[in-house]
């Protein structure tokens, strides 16, 4: 009888507070045949806390291409494997994508075991609009690249999020302040779920001052959330929907009445709709 292939479990682990480990995650790490970890020494502490004794193998950014093929071979042999990062949900600015892609492309099962994620944790307590948002990963390392990066997002109308490290957080905010309006609201979340967890919502100008003056605000791991830009409505064209409504009304009503009704129905600008109506009549 042919041995069925194993499954790859993508397991979220705590981002700080060990109490955030789920029952399902613990059970999965106990049951799999192998755990692929970003840093085996770091993960050992987590496993010891939950009484998990399982074989570990390294899977990090420097070896993941080679290691991924080896792990795929083991899955094909029937061994189930758990993928974990140092903290949080794997693949979000962490290694693992080559392995998951390889396994999916091979037609084998990838099973997510949800749990802690710094991105979602910060957004849930930010107090900024989150019905739409973009996650941009880590900001570029150099000042010029960061400024270009922020410039590209300056007019984005939706909330956007980056990760940042302790030794670059101040420079990151200073570069952001050189590009974005100083009154733009941002949230700085650091050391989430840990003893010194701090979540501050303020303006960009105040954030630069706060981080610059408080050494503690330059320690830990950071999630920075930036409010979307408020774009002025400068509509200069009549939409296809407005033209359709206007066309129907002109068949039944005098021009002024059709324009007035089109304004009321569509919310369009009277001047633009009136000119569109004249153009329609001239074209007949």
Folded structure, characterized:
It is a single chain. With 284 residues, the protein is of the alpha/beta class. The protein contains 11 helices and 10 strands. It has helices at residues 23-31, 40-49, 64-76, 97-105, 118-124, 143-153, 169-177, 204-213, 240-250, 255-266, 270-283, and strands spanning 8-11, 34-37, 56-58, 81-84, 110-113, 133-138, 159-164, 185-190, 198-203, 222-226. The chain has a 5-stranded parallel beta sheet, sandwiched between helices. A 5-stranded mixed beta sheet has the order 6-7-10-8-9. Strand 2 (34-37), helix 2 and strand 3 form a beta-alpha-beta unit. Helix 3 (64-76) runs parallel beside helix 4 (97-105) and helix 10 packs across helix 11. The model has no long low-confidence stretch (mean pLDDT 93).
Query: Beta-strand level of the residues, as a percent range?
Result: 15-25%
* Largest sheet data: 5 strands, parallel
Assembly status: single chain
* Total helical segments: 11
**What's the number of extended β-strand segments?**
10
How would you write the strand order of the largest sheet? 3-2-4-1-5
The class by helix and strand makeup works out as alpha/beta
Order of helices and strands: EHEHEHEHEHEHEHEEHEHHH
Helix content: 40-55%
Low-confidence stretches: none
> What is the averaged pLDDT score?
93
What Rg, in angstroms, do the CA atoms define?
27 Å
Shape: extended
N-end to C-end Cα span: 78 Å
Give the structure's gist in a few sentences:
With 284 residues, the protein is an alpha/beta fold. It has helices at residues 23-31, 40-49, 64-76, 97-105, 118-124, 143-153, 169-177, 204-213, 240-250, 255-266, 270-283; strands at residues 8-11, 34-37, 56-58, 81-84, 110-113, 133-138, 159-164, 185-190, 198-203, 222-226.
């Amino acid at each position: 009888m042919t041995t069925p292939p194993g499954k790859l479990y993508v397991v979220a682990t705590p981002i700080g507070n060990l109490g955030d480990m789920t029952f399902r995650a613990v059970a999965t790490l106990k049951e799999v045949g192998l755990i692929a970890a970003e840093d085996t020494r770091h993960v050992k502490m987590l496993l010891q806390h939950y009484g998990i004794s399982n074989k570990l193998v390294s899977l990090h950014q420097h070896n993941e291409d080679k290691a991924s093929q080896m792990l795929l071979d083991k899955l094909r042999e029937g061994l189930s494997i758990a993928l974990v990062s140092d903290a949080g949900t794997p693949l979000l600015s962490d290694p693992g994508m080559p392995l998951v892609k390889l396994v999916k492309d091979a037609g084998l099962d990838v099973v997510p075991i949800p749990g802690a994620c710094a991105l979602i944790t910060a957004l849930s307590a930010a107090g900024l609009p989150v019905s739409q948002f973009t996650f941009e990963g880590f900001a570029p390392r150099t000042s010029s690249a960061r400024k270009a990066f922020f410039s590209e997002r300056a007019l984005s109308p939706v909330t956007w999020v980056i990760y940042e490290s302790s030794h670059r957080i101040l420079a990151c905010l200073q570069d952001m302040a050189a590009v974005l309006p100083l009154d733009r609201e941002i949230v700085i979340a650091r050391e989430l779920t840990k003893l010194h967890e701090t979540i501050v919502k303020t303006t960009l100008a105040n954030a630069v001052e706060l981080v610059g003056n408080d050494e503690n605000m330059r320690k830990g791991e950071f999630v920075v959330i930036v409010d979307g830009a408020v774009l002025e409505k400068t509509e200069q064209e009549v939409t296809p929907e407005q033209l359709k409504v206007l066309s129907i009304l002109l068949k039944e009503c005098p021009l002024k009445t059709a324009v007035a009704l089109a304004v009321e129905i569509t919310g369009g600008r009277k001047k633009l709709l009136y000119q569109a109506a004249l153009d329609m009549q001239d074209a007949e």
